[in-house]
Design brief:
The chain has five helices and five strands, in the order αββαααββαβ. The two termini are 20 Å apart. The longest helix is centred in the N-terminal third of the chain and has 17 residues, at 5-21. The chain is α+β, with helices and mostly antiparallel strands. α1 (5-21) crosses α5.
């Protein structure tokens, strides 16, 4: 199963809605397919322009490692040398913190990732998960 543009747009719309519901700072949301390619991206009014790179780095690390942002952060804390090496391999495009959420289909296969940035990493992850669940998929934070 691949992430359709329709599902990607639903994920983004619902993640942004969750951010507004929780009164978060302006969010930026990217959806990547299983190959790490951008399927869709939106940046709310007021979000800084550099947020695309952060959102992408969160999602990219998740999909390329098959490891959600929370697990990446724990790994970075336990084995910083490993995450430094991984980040080197991926051209510095990995941001190992919550807010990079794996998207799984109902069979458990990774079909992409969402990266959200703008508020605290934990709040970013909450918004991403809300979007994923609204699209009828499973998220792993």
């Amino acid at each position: 199963m691949a992430i359709s543009l329709r599902k990607a747009r639903t994920i983004i719309r619902k993640a942004l809605e969750k951010g507004r519901e929780l009164e978060l700072k302006p969010l930026s949301v990217v959806v990547l397919d299983a190959g790490g390619h951008v399927q869709a991206f939106e940046r709310e009014d007021g979000a800084s322009p550099g947020r695309f790179a952060i959102a992408h780095g969160k999602a990219h690390g998740a999909v390329m490692l098959g490891m959600a942002g929370t697990a990446q952060m724990a790994r970075a804390e336990q084995q910083a040398y490993f995450m430094d090496a991984v980040n080197g391999l991926f051209g510095g495009q990995v941001v190992p913190v919550p807010g990079g959420v794996l998207i799984r289909d109902k069979k458990g296969a990774v079909i992409g990732a969402v990266g959200v940035t703008g508020d605290t990493s934990d709040n970013d992850a909450r918004a991403a998960l809300a979007g994923i669940e609204a699209a009828g998929l499973d998220g792993e934070i």
